[in-house]
Specification:
Layout (H helix, E strand, L loop, with lengths): L24 H29 L4 H22 L2
Length: 81
């Protein structure tokens, strides 16, 4: 019995189609929403801590931590995968 050989697609061995390098626009909007949500959420938490304990600086720290966490999430989800 003869084994079926994979067909070539677009000159690529193994029958694999060429990789699509351009992500769909929906992924760009999702990445932007992750970024904005992280900044707003952590900024709001920092603002709440500032108001609750009558401190200063947690709003800025929250904004920076939110931006960093969001960028890490975007990197792991879209770039690293």
């Amino acid at each position: 019995m003869e084994q079926e050989q994979p067909r070539e697609v677009s000159g690529r061995p193994g029958g694999k189609p060429p990789p699509d390098r351009t992500p769909p626009p929906a992924e760009a909007w999702t990445a932007l929403s992750h970024l904005l949500t992280g900044i707003l959420l952590f900024g709001a938490i920092g603002w709440g801590v500032d108001e609750l304990f009558d401190l200063r600086g947690f709003t800025v720290a929250g904004l920076l931590v939110g931006a960093a966490a969001s960028m890490y999430l975007i990197y792991v989800r879209y770039v690293k995968s």
